[in-house]
Design goal:
alpha/beta, about 20% strand, TIM Barrel, 8-stranded parallel sheet
């Protein structure tokens, strides 16, 4: 099932509960929470207290994306704060297998993230361990960037791998997705579509989520 996953990085934090409620009324079933440490990426965002606050605000699936150094030190803390899924960067996790299993043992889905320039081939030996894969379609750190076109070929490559291995492995994409390119992203093979600015910077987040769900549902997931 295709999911439109609003990223709260682009929401109004002074009215965060209201923005989340609007996205939920539009049909969102997941929320994306970007955690940045100012080291792995050149930006600082949220920590466990914000995740705890969001958890009290909504029952939606909370998808935490850790853009941090040494994610194995902190991943379990975010699960305890209320995350339903936690993803860590291949480029940051020194012991990726162990980190993924730590997240799963803590009770959440465990995901692997690849930066745009990191090839999908590095994941072939860990796909059986991961619960999902997030492909960055912008260089991580800031919202509002344009989607890097070659990442869609990475999506197609990963889609072929999961079909060959017969894995029920959701493919997530994050960065530069909006109504005009959403159908192409879905047809490439993406299942979880993270989008922030397109939703929370629109005139009406509820309407935009509903429209994007309609576009996604109407797109056929075949190679293009």
């Amino acid at each position: 099932m295709i999911e439109i996953v609003p990223s709260i990085l682009s929401a109004d934090f002074a009215r965060l509960a209201d923005d989340i409620a609007r996205a939920e009324r539009g049909g969102a079933r997941m929320l994306h929470l970007d955690v940045m440490d100012g080291h792995f990426v050149p930006n600082l965002t949220i920590g466990p207290p914000v995740v705890e606050s969001v958890r009290r605000t909504t029952k939606l699936h909370l998808d935490c994306h850790l853009m941090i150094e040494e994610p194995e030190r902190y991943a379990e803390i975010f699960v305890k704060a209320g995350a339903d899924s936690v993803s860590v960067h291949y480029e940051a996790a020194r012991h990726l297998d162990g980190c993924l299993n730590l997240i799963k043992k803590a009770g959440a889905m465990a995901g692997v993230v690849l930066n745009p320039a990191t090839p999908v081939s590095v994941l072939e030996d860990v796909l059986d361990v991961a619960d999902y894969v997030l492909l960055m379609s912008v260089n991580p750190g800031f919202g509002g960037q344009k989607l890097i076109p070659y990442v869609l070929e990475k999506v197609r490559h990963l889609d072929r791998l999961r079909r060959e291995k017969k894995l029920a492995l959701p493919i997530e994409i994050d960065g530069g997705v909006h109504k005009d390119n959403l159908a192409e992203v879905v047809r490439a093979g993406c299942d979880w579509i993270v989008t922030g600015s397109a939703i929370f910077h629109s005139p009406d987040a509820e309407v935009t989520v509903r429209e994007m769900r309609g576009i996604a549902d109407g797109a056929t997931a075949i190679p293009v």
